[in-house]
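hi!! sorry for the late reply, been swamped w classes. u asked for the two structures so here they r. pasted raw, havent cleaned anything up. first the sequence of the first protein and right below it the tokens
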Amino acid sequence: MQPSSRAPFTVPVSQGPVSVAADRVTATVLVAAAIAATVTLARVGPDARGHGTHEQLGMQPCGWPIQYGIPCPTCGCTTAATQVVHGHLLDAFVTQPFGA
């Protein structure tokens, strides 16, 4: 049996499960969403509390800390993502690793 010149476990796009056009449209939409999110996060500053940055985007405060007195498991995700966009990677991971 002759060894294949193609890398193992690769599928050419033309033989993939979706058409090339659908693949490119999907990629374009994902890139546009990533750019929009980055621009949005660049326009706000990380909240000094370590959570609550989403309030600068017009969203309501998280009800979990109000109800239970402790941050919810996802508190700080928007703040961490904002810190990443602003180039403060260590601060982002300290604030909320999942958000970073």
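now the second protein. again sequence first, tokens right under
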Amino acid sequence: NYTRLAYIDTGLPNMDDHRQAAKEWAERQGWEYTLLHGKMDLIRRLMGGDWDHEDFLVVPPGQTIEASADEDIVRIKKSRTGK
């Protein structure tokens, strides 16, 4: 059911072969190919431990997550005691 392949160019060096392979794959499948420009900021922050609560859900040890019915998508599950 796919109709489009999007390649995200993050500016990393030496990725021309990967971008070209993605484009060729889309052509073979008869899919629309889209080149998107992205940034590495989120991945750098993830790897560096710079986890603000706007972009990351930090789940303390022993806690679990649950789906939310709002824009958060998931949240830390509250215990039965409300903590």
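hope this helps!! also noticed smth abt the second:
Residues 16-29 form the longest helix (14 residues).
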